């Protein structure tokens, strides 16, 4: 294998690691983060001249060890924080919050104001149509969209 091939392999593993890292931002499961770590470890193996079978083995081993050893620790700290009644952050912070409909919300589109921030919104119940001025409660967040329900 030539030096050029080693660099190409390393770059491909790095690209995979970055893509997995970006995808993790949309899932928050920490699984893709562990796979990303495996891809970066395989990139290092490729840069050091390891063949493709060794690179693949490094990817599998590092990913598996990360999933088995690191992910439970992260989850335990995350659960401990939630149980300690700390103030939730990010998406967790708006679940259960109330908001105000600014533009009609239905199953296809909408805009609400939640805690001073504008959020795209969809009706959690596909049959509900919420008009501007109505109060809503955030049931869950999917990506960057708040799934809302009429708040009585």
Automatic annotation (TrEMBL):
Keyword presence, Transmembrane helix: yes
Domain of life assignment: Bacteria
The keyword Transmembrane helix belongs to this UniProt entry's keyword annotation: yes
Subcellular compartments: Membrane
UniProt keyword terms in alphabetical order: Membrane, Transmembrane, Transmembrane helix
Membrane topology value: Multi-pass membrane protein
Family matches, as Pfam families: NfeD
SUPFAM superfamilies membership: NfeD domain-like (SSF141322)
Annotated transmembrane regions: 12-35, 41-70
InterPro entries according to UniProt: Membrane_assoc_protease, NA-bd_OB-fold, NfeD-like_C
Protein name as it appears in the record: Membrane protein
Organism: Phytohabitans flavus
